[in-house]
């Protein structure tokens, strides 16, 4: 099976309620607050070292039996500028996507260089929910 690096859309950043240990690399996040500044609509978003995913896309990955992932709750807020530009825009429910999987083995894994690696079948599923602003490159097993 083919695998791919996926660098998701960055729609914002870590919010002030995020709790992380930056004494290790990558930083260890224990509580995630994602503050959306400008969301272009992708189902998978990041702000290093965290990933978030829409509930709809997460449910689809679970339904297909994808491996290497777990979900936690995330606090989502939007910036003042987002509210001004998109006053009526409703956000989908997002989950914190935790990826303990092995890159190139599980459907989702993290490579040694901290990039997300996704199997071809999981990538196909994610694309169905919107992955138009992600950078996608072939993963060869090395970083």
What does this structure look like?
It contains three helices and 13 strands; from the N terminus they run βββββββαββαβββαβ. The mean pLDDT is 95. The chain is α+β, with helices and mostly antiparallel strands. The protein has one domain. The chain has a four-stranded antiparallel beta sheet.
Helix content: 10-25%
What does the average pLDDT come to? 95
Helix count from the secondary structure assignment: 3
Number of domains: 1
Coarse shape: globular
Biggest sheet overview? 4 strands, antiparallel
Number of strands: 13
Q: What is the end-to-end distance?
A: 18 Å
Give a quick summary of the entry:
This protein is α+β, with helices and mostly antiparallel strands.
Q: Which terms summarize this structure?
A:
globular; 3 helices; 143 residues; 13 strands; 4-stranded antiparallel β-sheet; alpha+beta
Write the layout of secondary structure elements.
Layout: E1 3-7, E2 12-14, E3 19-21, E4 28-31, E5 33-36, E6 44-47, E7 50-54, H1 55-63, E8 70-72, E9 75-78, H2 80-85, E10 94-98, E11 108-110, E12 116-119, H3 120-129, E13 135-139
Parallel strand pairs: 5-9
Antiparallel strand pairs: 1-12, 1-13, 2-5, 3-4, 6-7, 7-10, 8-10, 11-12
